[in-house]
């Protein structure tokens, strides 16, 4: 069955906004949660709607603040009904660079938003999802599986999201709640544009994926029963090499790239 009621965090830009528009075309009611309200984003989702009867709302919330999240989730449920699908796209990566030069507070903020934010949204929506066939989706990253140069806060937070998703997959299955985790490579989104202003040149050599291709792969994966969804051929290859190849091979490839670009 097609999902009827969807909550998407980080829904005013990037992956969240694109996914929202795809689901709007399928006739879903959608609650967008984001740090700031955007009339432009809201209009884009409404314009993509299949029917005028669909409910599309945008709520402002700091996902790292649990009290805010619980209050907003309650509002969304009153507005669109209990969610069939919850997708946590909210995330930041504004602390790029070599580890020893990253500010302490900046490091903690990345972890609070990416990891604690994922925990907060999951905990807030569970009371409304138990007993129904529903799904929670976490947007992690290929950087949550494979370490990346200059990404220590981001990788640490996304590795944490992977651990959270793995545990919840086990715990929530008896409650008829499926868990999926999306692990894309770097995608051409507004967050990445901001990253590139300060990113280390070495990191840029490790590749990125176009937004449309990424969304196509993610939406296809969301229709499946797969736990881990990885859009993009190169990203899939990286995942399988990391999983099955000996460490000296995968480490050797990355180390050779770093050696050529870090001086």
Give a quick set of tags describing it.
single chain, 263 residues, alpha/beta, Rossmann fold, seven-stranded parallel beta sheet, globular
- In one word, what is the shape? globular
The largest sheet is: 7 strands, parallel
| Helix content percent band | 40-55%
Counted beta strands: 7
Total discrete domains: 1
Write down the CATH class: Alpha Beta
Describe the protein's architecture and organization.
The structure is a single chain. The chain has 263 residues and is an alpha/beta fold. The protein has a single domain (5-261), classed as 3-Layer(aba) Sandwich (Rossmann fold), CATH 3.40.50. It has 10 helices and 7 strands. It has helices spanning 14-25, 39-47, 66-80, 104-129, 152-172, 190-195, 201-204, 211-222, 233-244, 247-261; strands at 5-9, 29-34, 56-60, 85-88, 134-139, 177-182, 228-229. The chain has a 7-stranded parallel beta sheet, sandwiched between helices. Helix 3 packs parallel to helix 4 and helix 4 runs parallel beside helix 5 (152-172). The longest helix is centred in the middle third of the chain and has 26 residues, at 104-129. The mean pLDDT is 88.
């Amino acid at each position: 069955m097609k999902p009827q009621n969807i909550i998407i965090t980080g829904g005013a830009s990037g992956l969240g906004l694109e996914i929202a528009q795809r689901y709007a075309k399928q006739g879903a009611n959608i609650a967008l949660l984001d740090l700031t309200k955007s009339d432009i984003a809201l209009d884009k989702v409404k314009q993509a709607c299949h029917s005028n009867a669909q409910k599309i709302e945008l709520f402002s919330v700091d996902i790292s603040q649990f009290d805010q999240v619980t209050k907003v989730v309650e509002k969304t449920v009153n507005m669109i009904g209990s969610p069939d699908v919850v997708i946590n796209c909210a995330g930041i990566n504004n602390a790029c660079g070599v580890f020893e030069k990253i500010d302490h507070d900046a490091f903690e903020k990345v972890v609070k938003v990416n990891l604690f934010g994922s925990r907060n949204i999951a905990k807030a929506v569970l009371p409304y999802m138990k007993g129904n066939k529903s799904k929670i989706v976490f947007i992690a990253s290929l950087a949550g599986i494979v370490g990346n140069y200059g990404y220590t806060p981001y990788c640490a937070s996304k590795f944490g999201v992977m651990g959270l998703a793995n545990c919840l997959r086990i715990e929530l299955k008896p409650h008829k709640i499926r868990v999926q985790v999306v692990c894309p490579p770097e995608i051409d989104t507004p967050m990445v544009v901001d990253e590139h202003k300060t990113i280390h040149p070495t990191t840029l050599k490790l590749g990125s994926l176009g937004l449309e291709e990424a969304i196509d792969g993610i939406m296809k994966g969301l229709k499946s029963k797969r736990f881990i969804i990885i859009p993009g051929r190169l990203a899939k290859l990286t995942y399988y090499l990391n999983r099955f190849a000996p460490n000296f091979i995968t480490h050797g490839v990355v180390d050779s790239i770093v050696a050529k670009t870090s001086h």
